[in-house]
Structures are given as structure tokens and as C-alpha cells.
Amino acid sequence: MNSSKNLWKRRVFLQTMGATAAGMTLSSCGINANRAPQKLSSAALAIEPVVDAKSLEKPDLTIGYVPVNDCAPLAIAWEKGFFRKYGLNVTLSREASWGTSRDGIIFGRLDASPVVCGAVTNARTGAEGARHAPLCAAMTIHRHGNALTMNRAMWESGLRPWQEYQGDLERFGQDFRRYFDSLAPEKRVWAVVLSSAIYEYFIRYLAAAAGVRPDKEFRIIIIPPPQMVVNMRIGAMQGYMVAEPWNTRAISGNENIGFTFAQGREIWQGHPDRLLAVMESFIDKYPRTYRSLVKAMIEACQYCSQPENREEVAQLLTNKSFTGAKLKLTRPGIVGEYNYGGFDNRSRVVKSLDTTVFYDLPENIKKVANDHSTFLWQSESLWLMTQATRWGQLPEFPKNAEELARKAWRTDLYREIAGEMGISCPKEDYKVEVAEAFIDKKAFDPSDPIGYLKSFEIRAQSPQKFFLS
């Protein structure tokens, strides 16, 4: 069967699985906009606006969110009155999946929403599995905050959390390959929350680093976050990558079905996770409204970032309007006391503030002057394009990649808006991602994306046309 037919079959499979899983989520969990918060808190009502709503082109906004820890800045902006402070009357819409979150923006049901990193870039490029649309983002909601869960069978085969391999990728690869070779082809299934996005690329990146060809040796299916645990329990997949609290939920002592192999920060330290997306037309039609929205979200991210506020943030997320999960599930990823789990009664709690990064970058993350988590680097958008090309989701590396990144990731606007708040930003749009940031110790230099692509021994065999932008 030729390459184009393979891509077509995969697209149909992903769309079918995504639609099925979304339906399961809606029918079994009752997740819909009616469970979103309805009334402002007394704290929010007490806030004195600094922006007159009448001065905004569109003060009434509908903003989506998915019930995972990622929604923390949205929850804080609502509860603490940051939306109200900047003249916005926001209706929050609880979304069934990251696909509906993205498509809600594209089709006009939502004015804005967090989306999985990669959704904005791939909407611009039209990468396989992505709906083509002029999405834009000027800021991240957070970095990190996600993890890769493996099932109990993988533990019993001898696999352990990545930290216990002490950087020995070859030894991990041997364990991973041994387990993988023992599986029947139909069992070689991994789940992510959205096609052609950073979680899919992380699964592929890790597998390839271990010597397994993800383009030939397993399938990737799309499952909404709330359905990850139940689908692993029934054996639908070997592992999944998702945001918290759905990894913590799987470990021993909770659902007892798996363990965390690695947090996303161990695959790429400092990576962006969620972006605040809008359509390009929204920015053009409502520039003052957009500025208010970004300012409210920056303040919310700053609030979430403060160590003294994180217990409160974790507690707020347990509200049924947000994740509805127990505190023991929301807390680890927010306060930075993360338990990898396991089935040998060993404690694997790792304390680190970079478990989820909302604004301030911890000292262990290499950064340039005036860098902070909500600032978007256009070079990170280029990295996403290299992965889409690596796996054949794009027929070639875009000749206009820099232009696409500039239109999709609006660092120009972010600098202007942040400057109005007295926040300094990096002067450049590109930076080198150092080798130490990646699990395979392979640096990414955005000035040479083609050389980076060619450095990978495992990549989609067809097409392999790489062109310099």
C-alpha cells in the first residue's frame, strides 16, 4: 500500500476514534458547558475594573477549557476577578476534548480557548490530522504539567520510570524493545489527546530514541483526557500521554493500572504545553479586547506561579466546575510533589516547582534575559514543524516556515501587551534548545531545521523531501 493511502487510513482511524471517544465522554461523564462556573465569586465581584467594558469592542466573551490541571489560570482568572479587572464579561465553556476546544474557536462557537501545543502551528500548515485555519496565539498558559503513563504489564516486564535509568537511553531502549516485541501487532497502541500535536510528537520522539519505528510499529489513537484511565483499564492501549491529573489517577494507590514513565519535561525540558488560541480575525476585529484578555491571563498565570498560592490553586481545581478530581489527584502536579507510582511499595515522589510552570522559570531551566513561561518562542513553532515533517504529516518542511511561525505565534503582540504591564521580554524570537534539554541529548538549532531533520536515523521513509525555508 502506498504512502498516501496509509496517511488516509490513519486520518480516518484517528477521526473515528476521536469522535467515538468524545461521544463516550459526553454520554458517560455528562461533560458539557452546563458544568462550567455560572456565578462570579465575591472576590471577583469586589474587583474594581481598570478597563471600562464600554471601551472594548467585544467585552462579552465565551472561552473554552478542558477539565484538566491546565485550566488553572482560567479558574483563577474567573475566581479572582482578573477578567473583570480588564473589562471582560467571560462565560466559561467546559469542553469535552482538545479537539472540540480547538474546533470551537475555528467555527466561532468560542472566542478563545487553550489548545494543545502544536494545534496552532499545524492549523497553519495543514499537517495531517489538523484542520487548516488561521489560528493565532500570543502566549502560553503553562509549560510542562503532563506525563507519559505506561500500563502495569510494562512494569512487570521490567520497565521503570525514566529517572531510574539515570540517562541510559540504550538500556531503556533494550527494555522497551523487549516488551514491544512481545506484543501482538493489534496490541501496539498508544493514546494521545490530539493528532499532530506535541503529545503525539513526544510519543514518537521517545519511541524512535528507543529504536522503535513509530511510523510502522504501532498505532496512535485519540482519546479525550477523562477517558484515558478507563480505556487503559480495559486494555485499549499500552500507554498514554495526557495532562494531569489523569496520570496521577492511574498510579498505585489510586486506580492501580499503571505508572508514570516520564513527565514531558524529561523529554523536552522547558517545552510549551497549552497556548491561548484565537482566530486571526479576532485580533484584527477586537484589538483592545484581545489586549485585555492577554493581560488578564498573564496576571492569572503569575498568580498560579507563586509557591504560596499553589495549594489554593490545587484546591480550586477540585471544584466540579473545573476538574472535579480529588485533591490528592490535582495537588501533585500543581504544588510540585509528583509521584511516579510503581508496584514495589517504593516512594517515588519528586519535589520540583517545574512540574508545572505557569510564569516564573525555575533556576534549573536554562533561559535568556527577561524570559518567562508565558512568552512564546517562534523557534519552538519551527521545532513542531520539524516533527510534522519527520513523520510525514507534511510532505516537506515548509519553505515559508518562518513566516508561518511569525503569523501563528504573535510574539510582537505579546511584547507590546506585556510592555504595557511593565513586563520586559526577550528581544529575539528564536533561541537554540540545548542538548541537555532533550531526552536524547540532541540540540535544536532553529537556524538549521533541515540539518536537524536529517540527523534523525528513524523518520518516516516517505516522503523525505526537506527544503530550506
Topology of this protein?
Layout: H1 3-29, H2 42-45, E1 60-65, H3 72-79, H4 82-85, E2 89-94, H5 98-106, E3 113-116, H6 119-125, E4 135-144, E5 146-151, H7 152-156, H8 169-181, E6 189-192, H9 198-209, H10 214-217, E7 219-222, H11 228-233, E8 239-243, E9 258-263, H12 264-267, E10 272-279, H13 280-285, H14 287-305, H15 310-317, H16 327-336, E11 337-339, E12 349-351, E13 356-357, H17 378-390, H18 401-408, H19 411-420, H20 449-454
Parallel strand pairs: 1-2, 6-7, 6-8
Antiparallel strand pairs: 3-10, 4-10, 4-13, 5-8, 5-9, 11-12
Helix pairs in contact: 3-14, 15-16, 17-18
Structure characterization notes:
The protein is built from 20 helices and 13 strands. The protein is an alpha/beta fold and 469 residues long. The strands form four sheets. The protein has a five-stranded mixed β-sheet with strand order 7-6-8-5-9. α3 crosses α14, α15 runs antiparallel to α16 and α17 packs across α18. The longest helix has 27 residues. It starts with a helix and ends in a 15-residue tail after the last helix. The N terminus and C terminus are likely disordered.
